[in-house]
Task: inverse folding
C-alpha cells in the first residue's frame, strides 16, 4: 500500500511525537522503558538512569521529567536490554551476556537473586537462551526457580514467547519451539535476498497468545508476516520500503522506525497504513537521533500543554426513555 492510499479524513492523528527528556549524557542511550510517571534509561557506558515526572505547584508551569537517580552496573558494560515486570516490581537488565535483577521503582539489586550468566538472549516469561540450550525458569519476587533445559542450536539472536511457543531468530531463520514437546521447526528466512549477504536484524513481535509478527527482508523491501505458534500464516502481510530500525506493537497498531527517520503506523487488523510521521528536517540535531521505538505496555504519563487547545465542544444526545 502506498503512502498516498492513507486515509485523509482523520481529524486527529493516532499519534503525536512529543519530547519527554531533551538530552541524556554522558552515555549514549541503548535502551529505555517507561511506566507511570517514571522513565528508565540504559546507556552504552553501563549507566542506568531514572527520571520522574515532577509536578509543578504553579499550574501555569508545564510538568517535566527530571533526573532522579543515576547508577552504574557492576560490570560497567553497555546495557543491551531493559525489561520492566510491574506485577512483581522487578526490572530485568541484560548486559555483557548476564541478566541482572533490580527492584522497581527504586532500582536496587534484588539481594536473593544472582545474575544469570552466559545468556545469548531471553524472553519473558521466563526463557533464557544460552549457547546450546533453552533454560526455563520461574521468577518470583524474592527468588528465581530453575525448571528444566531444552537442547538448542547455537546462534540465537532474539527470542519472544507467546504461551507455550517460543520464537527464536538466528542469523538465517525464525524458528518456533514448542516448549511442551521440545520440538523446533523453521518458519521463514530472516533474509530472503539470497544474493545479499548483508546481516539483517531480526524482529519478533508478540501479537497475541498464539501469534507472532516476523519481519523478513526481500531485498528491495521488507515483509511483515503474521504466523501462529504452529507456523501457519494468518491475516495479510505488511510491507516497508526498507528494513526497519525498530518495530513495536501498540495494539491494534504496529509502529516502525525506518532508516531515514520516518515512522510508519500500520493497522494490525487491516494491514493498511494509518499514519506516517515524516523524517526530521535537515539540521534538526535532536530529531536526527531517532534510534528506536519502545512499547511501554503499562503506559506512562506524557506532559502536554496543548490539551486545552485540542478540546472541542460536542453535542451529546440522550435517550429520555
Result:
Amino acid at each position: 500500500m502506498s503512502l498516498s492510499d492513507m486515509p485523509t479524513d482523520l481529524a486527529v492523528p493516532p499519534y503525536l511525537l512529543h519530547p519527554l527528556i531533551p538530552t541524556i549524557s554522558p552515555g549514549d542511550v541503548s535502551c529505555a522503558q517507561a511506566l507511570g510517571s517514571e522513565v528508565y534509561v540504559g546507556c552504552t557506558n553501563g549507566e542506568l538512569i531514572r527520571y520522574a515526572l515532577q509536578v509543578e505547584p504553579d499550574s501555569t508551569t508545564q510538568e517535566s521529567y527530571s533526573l532522579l537517580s543515576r547508577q552504574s552496573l557492576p560490570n560497567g558494560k553497555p546495557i543491551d536490554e531493559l525489561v520492566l515486570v510491574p506485577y512483581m516490581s522487578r526490572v530485568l537488565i541484560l548486559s555483557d551476556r548476564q541478566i541482572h535483577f533490580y527492584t522497581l521503582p527504586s532500582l536496587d539489586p534484588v539481594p536473593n537473586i544472582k545474575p544469570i550468566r552466559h545468556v545469548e538472549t531471553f524472553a519473558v516469561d521466563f526463557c533464557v537462551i544460552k549457547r546450546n540450550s533453552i533454560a526455563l525458569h520461574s521468577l518470583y519476587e524474592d527468588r528465581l526457580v530453575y525448571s528444566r533445559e531444552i537442547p538448542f542450536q547455537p546462534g540465537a539472536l532474539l527470542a519472544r514467547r507467546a504461551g507455550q511457543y517460543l520464537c527464536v531468530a538466528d542469523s538465517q531463520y525464525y524458528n518456533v519451539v514448542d516448549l511442551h514437546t521440545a520440538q523446533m521447526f523453521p518458519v521463514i528466512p530472516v533474509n530472503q535476498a539470497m544474493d545479499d549477504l548483508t546481516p539483517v536484524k531480526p524482529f519478533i513481535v508478540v501479537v497475541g497468545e498464539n501469534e507472532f509478527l516476523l519481519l523478513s527482508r526481500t531485498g528491495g523491501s521488507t515483509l511483515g508476516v503474521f504466523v501462529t505458534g504452529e507456523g501457519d500464516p494468518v491475516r495479510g502481510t505488511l510491507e516497508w520500503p526498507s528494513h526497519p530500525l525498530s518495530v513495536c506493537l501498540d495494539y491494534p497498531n504496529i509502529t516502525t522506525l525506518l532508516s531515514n527517520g520516518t515512522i510508519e503506523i500500520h493497522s494490525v487488523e487491516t494491514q493498511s497504513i494509518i499514519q506516517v510521521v515524516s523524517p526530521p528536517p535537515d539540521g534538526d540535531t535532536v530529531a536526527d537521533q531517532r534510534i528506536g521505538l519502545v512499547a511501554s505496555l503499562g503506559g506512562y504519563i506524557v506532559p502536554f500543554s496543548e490539551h486545552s487547545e485540542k478540546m472541542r465542544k460536542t453535542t451529546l444526545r440522550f435517550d429520555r426513555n
The radius of gyration is 21 Å. The chain has three domains: 26-111, 120-237, 244-298. Residues 244-298 form one domain.
